[in-house]
Amino acid sequence: MTDNTRPTDSPAQQRAAATTAAALPVPCPGVDPLTSILPDEPLLMMGAGPVPIPDAVAKANSVVINHLGDTMARVIDQVKSMARYVFQTRSNWVLGVAGPGSAAMEMAVSNLAWPGTRVLSIVNGFFSGRMAEMARRVGAEVTTLDVADREIVSLDALAQVIERTRPEVVTVVHGETSNTVWNRQLQDIVRIAKASGALVVVDAVCTLSTMPLEMDAWGIDVVITGGQKGLSSIPGVSLIAFSDAAWERVRTRTVPNTHWCLDAMLAENFWHNAGYHYTAPVSGVLALHEALRLVCTETLEKRFARHQRCSLALQSGVTALGLQLYTPEACRLNSVVGIALPAGVTPRDVCNHISQQYQVEIAGSFGLPIVRIGQMGEQCREHHLFRTVHALGRTMCDLGANVDLPAGVAALEESLSAAGRR
Ligand SMILES: *Cc1c(COP(=O)(O)O)cnc(C)c1O
């Protein structure tokens, strides 16, 4: 920068000269206001997350409070106790994580595994593979048990690989969102892994509060979830729970965690001692509080029933359109429904068209020839289902595919009525 003040100027003159000086090296950009970027009416978020949020969550998300102090302490206390209900655990070691579901996954992995730790990852697809990758990155000795697309792990194969590799930690996904597979024998997987002395980490990001999962009763050591899926909160604040056995491993480890933010012992200072770790995402925590409170108001039993009823009705509507569901019924996930596309129609075409023409967002899936419609939290509402099945059917017609739109909508209605309206 050139100095265009003169030594004889007074300090005030020098300041004035500085503010009128040549333009800064990085010029101020011209940008559009959000109102001209966002659609006039929000799109209906029916993809694999984030999902629509209730008003109470949106309102809470607009509030900023002190991240330390009595008000926050009360909020945190309630978040933990509601999270215990949702996880079905009495464990003391429930914590929030500032970050996506993946940050909670990384918190689980990086606190339980370090260089040399033997980790077995059951890999059904994209997200279960991510946990294996995280374990490799902390230097663990990772074995993967790769499961074919649209299949569930063979318990015999699991027992054999456990026998052979003696893992200290086993990771598994409850619902594999990428190919819409439900690991329906999760309880057996946990039992077999626990019998060998391993700790079991379960990714329940898309399933928590949408279908039964009982951390204590099933013997799970770590459960993780994100905010923006089943809980219908905002993305960016996640939850994790450790069993006593898992916490003991975290507490007594001698190798420090390379992730400072994700160090569970440091995080405990905030989540249990009302002390400072990092500035908590207060608005997001308030939003999560409201999301959890709404789960408690509804109760898990009713919430599971709502999810099942809505997802099965959606599946019935999609099938009646003449489209194929991607995953066989025996291991089909209800939380996210995968739909195979007719030849000549690409996921990108469908997702773009349904969004632009019908203001409904759905998702593709990491190179698979499918589109996915979420059934998590607020997505499981009848009026959203009608709009979505209609928009999907119209989109397929517009793209030249042969679907029976009236039959799809009728099947949706029949399925919902048969299951009984509430
Ligand atoms: C969405 C998802 C994740 C990742 O969550 P992010 O919030 O995107 O990091 C992990 N596992 C499963 C099963 C998911 O559905």
From TrEMBL:
Residues 65-362 form the Aminotransferase class V domain. The modification N6-(pyridoxal phosphate)lysine is found at K229. One of its GO terms (biological process) is glycine biosynthetic process, by transamination of glyoxylate. Its cofactor is pyridoxal 5'-phosphate. Residues 1-21 are annotated as: Disordered. Residues 12-21 have a biased composition (Low complexity). It comes from the Bacteria. Residues 1-11 have a biased composition (Polar residues). The keyword Lyase does not apply. Substrate binds at R372. GO terms for molecular function: alanine-glyoxylate transaminase activity; L-serine-pyruvate transaminase activity. Pfam families: Aminotran_5. PROSITE patterns: AA_TRANSFER_CLASS_5. Keywords: Aminotransferase, Pyridoxal phosphate, Transferase. InterPro entries: Aminotrans_V_dom, Aminotrans_V_PyrdxlP_BS, PyrdxlP-dep_Trfase, PyrdxlP-dep_Trfase_major, PyrdxlP-dep_Trfase_small, SP_NH2Trfase/AEP_transaminase. Belongs to the class-V pyridoxal-phosphate-dependent aminotransferase family. PANTHER family: ALANINE--GLYOXYLATE AMINOTRANSFERASE (PTHR21152:SF40), AMINOTRANSFERASE CLASS V (PTHR21152). This is Alanine--glyoxylate aminotransferase family protein. The lineage of its organism: Bacteria, Pseudomonadati, Pseudomonadota, Betaproteobacteria, Burkholderiales.
